[in-house]
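Example 3.2
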Amino acid sequence: TQSRSSAASDVYKRQGIDFPPKGDSANAYFAQLLATNTVESEIYFFVPGMENLRKGDDQKDTRETILAAGENGFAYIMTTDGKALTDISSFTPLILAPVKTQGAEPIFDPEPFDRSFVYGQADGSATTGSIDENGHALTKDRENFFQTDNNSLFGTDTPVVKYPLGL
């Protein structure tokens, strides 16, 4: 079988892209969607009301300009080994916003969505959760959004949040 990076490289070549996004941030991962024209505009990653964030300018012609720092308000969830989540179900969270502060468990900004956060799930749907008074994500029927026990949203994977550049 073909490795994930080799498959991505093939897509880049077919699309005439000689500057695949680099780095280990949410921006770098989401920029791959822009580079391959899976997503057409940087503005989809904008979260109004977040500090240090601006609407994307759709300059996507270099590594430095494609989803540059401050043009993305979403975090991306991976596993501890730097790979995509493997133990997913339809409701497994893959992306989330509005993250305010980085850490092992992110702190969310309560302002943009009226004390709520949004997250995209593996089945392509999106939903919301509440943010507590300390900025932590809450979810129904779980002690913690990021818990890793048998009631985890992430199955047997340990979620690792890849943050947007410019927080």
